[in-house]
Write a structure and sequence with these properties.
heterodimer, A: alpha/beta, 5-stranded mixed β-sheet, two-stranded parallel ribbon, 5 helices, about 30% helix, about 25% strand, B: alpha+beta, Cytochrome-c3 Hydrogenase, chain B, 3-stranded antiparallel β-sheet
């Protein structure tokens, strides 16, 4: 069964126009497809090649190319191989299609990516905030969000002078970042 | 109050009300909340509410050197930190083209199974507490502490070890470590019948947990369930066997399964896994003395180590299920992106919401603990 399924995967990927297949090792296959072809590819992989487990959806912000890369990691319990389907979408407006119809776990990953990167998934059941409920700044996992600069703007080290810190400084110690060391 | 003065309060128009459980409550291993809509004691709707343990690890890791991140990753899951270190290290090794020496691989398996034992003792102790049996919890925590003693001897740290680094492990085993671990395993094995008597065959636990939080294998596959929760629905899937890493393909072990898919079955799978982990550790103890050689391969100067550009998706079987790291390098001295796929991000959100809808309020704690979700893994 397993060999037959592997052959079927090869045939399926060969037929799929525009898909670039890289076999990384015996159990890892990388497929690069265009953003309009990806949902169709996932449907085929799930329906005809036993890739029923969506392990994760990862998002990478390629800010220089002004693109988001979305990676769908799919595992087959039968062939014991993992297909990573890569696609890229434009960073602006950062909208893509949900694959929730195919894979229920997508709901969590899409919600997470929306919260952290600001990518909106059309058709996803829930795009509400989950982790950053009280955050109204930009999506923090984007490369143009500098968390260190945010901390320096938001918090004042000068005002943070508790007694225990003064005691420590009298003994020659202190916090590692002193006001004069803060980068502008 | 005299009876003649008694006046019944008027009935509210509906019996529905909302209840917040958490973020501090004993139903889960960390800060996590769940918002319930109830009719009487029946749950109509449930909404998981995370974010109380968000520390922004994925963002922090982009700003730190490859090697510095080893101090961050174990903190992503407090009860079971070793799989985090190993999974991250495996990804960096794949990117950097490093060959981990065989001895280091065996030492890693040793720690992974010790960590699994410690995590399972923690979990069913916690589950017992949700049924009011605090003795099991105290026993579990006390026995887990003995495993932490061995971790302390090995690495200097009880909870966070930071012992696995890209390329291998930090140090070799201390003299006499394997003998002390072996006698600890003898002790733990002798405790298993006690745990059976106290907890696993205890009618308070069995009757209370049978038939609650039930999911079928089809539902489990659909919801992305992995680990003991999936094996409790009858599917023998284990990353250690089916997507082997380190030296697991040289070890003999069984993959325990149960068919019922309820809270009881999930605990019984973990109970059987205790025995399997002890079995694996005994094999490692027998093999390790004959495997010599280095404990890590040479790596470039870690302060100026530019890991070649590329991407790696590595998976390990943690005590909670399939743990995966997706690590992307752009050729710099820091990761370009690290994505942590914790098994609990499925179990604590979608699965939990689905399982407790329709359940009764008194079963919520049990269903939550039987899923063994780890909130810091969800929040990251």
């Amino acid at each position: 069964m397993s060999t037959a399924l592997k052959v079927r995967l090869e045939q399926l990927l060969a037929q799929f126009e525009g898909a670039r297949v890289t076999r990384k090792n015996a159990r890892r296959i990388r497929v690069d497809v265009g953003s309009d072809a990806l949902p169709g590819l996932l449907e085929l992989l799930q329906g005809h090649a036993s890739y029923v487990h969506l392990s994760a959806i990862s998002c990478i912000d390629w800010i220089e190319a002004q693109q988001f890369e979305l990676v769908y990691h799919l595992w087959s319990y039968e062939t014991r191989t993992l297909v990573s389907a890569h696609t890229r979408i434009a960073r602006e407006p950062g909208v893509y299609l949900s694959v929730y119809d195919l894979y229920r776990p997508a709901a969590f990953f899409e919600r997470d990516i929306h919260e952290m990167f600001g990518v909106y998934f059309e058709g996803s059941p829930d795009m509400e905030k989950f982790i950053l409920t009280e955050w109204d700044g930009p999506p923090p996992m984007r490369k143009d969000f500098d968390s260190e600069a945010f901390v320096n703007q938001t918090f004042s080290w000068e005002q943070y002078r508790p007694q225990w810190l003064k005691d420590l400084e009298e003994e020659g110690g202190g916090i590692s970042i002193r006001p004069e060391d803060i980068r502008p | 109050m005299r009876p003649e003065n008694y006046q019944a309060i008027s009935q509210p128009p509906s019996n529905e009300f909302e209840l917040n459980i958490g973020p501090n409550h004993p139903g889960i291993e960390g800060n996590y909340a769940i918002k319930l809509k109830l009719n009487g004691d029946r749950i109509l709707e449930a909404r998981a509410d995370g974010g109380y343990l968000h520390r922004g690890f994925e963002k922090l890791m982009e700003g730190r050197l490859w090697i510095q991140n080893i101090t961050l990753v174990p903190r992503i899951c407090v009860p079971d930190p070793v799989p985090m270190e190993v999974c991250y290290s495996l990804a960096v090794e794949e990117l950097g083209g490093l060959e981990v020496p065989e001895r280091a691989q065996w030492i890693r398996v040793l720690q992974l199974e010790m960590s699994r034992l410690a995590a399972h003792l923690f979990t069913f102790g916690g589950h017992a507490a949700t049924t009011g049996q605090y003795s099991t919890m105290y026993w579990g925590i006390a026995d887990r502490d003995l495993i932490l003693d061995r971790f302390e001897e090995l690495s200097g740290g009880r909870v966070y070890h930071m012992f696995n680094i890209p390329g291998g492990v930090r140090r070799d085993l201390p003299d006499g470590f394997l003998e002390r671990l072996s006698s600890l395993l003898d002790y733990l094995e002798s405790r298993l019948p006690d745990y059976d008597n106290l907890f696993f065959t205890n009618q308070v636990f069995v009757t209370r947990s049978r038939g609650i939080g039930t999911m079928t294998q089809e539902q489990a596959l659909q919801w992305g369930v992995t680990g003991p929760n999936l094996r409790a629905t009858g599917l023998a899937f284990d990353v250690r066997r089916d997507d082997p890493y380190l030296v697991y393909d040289q070890l003999e072990f069984e993959i325990p399964t149960e068919d019922a898919g309820d809270a009881l079955a999930r605990n019984l799978v973990r109970r059987a896994e205790l025995r399997q982990s002890i079995h694996i550790l005994r094999q490692v103890i027998a093999r390790l003395p004959s495997i010599g050689g280095a404990i890590r391969c040479p790596i470039p100067n870690p302060l100026a180590w530019n890991v070649p550009a590329g991407e790696a998706y590595t998976r390990v079987e943690s005590s909670k299920g399939e743990l995966a790291y997706y690590v992307v390098s752009a050729g710099g001295d820091k990761p370009y992106r690290v994505h942590v796929r914790g098994p609990s991000s499925m179990h604590a959100v979608q699965v939990l919401e689905n399982l407790i809808t329709g359940a009764r309020i008194e079963d919520v704690g049990q269903i939550m603990f039987s899923l063994d979700a780890c909130p810091p893994e969800v929040d990251r």
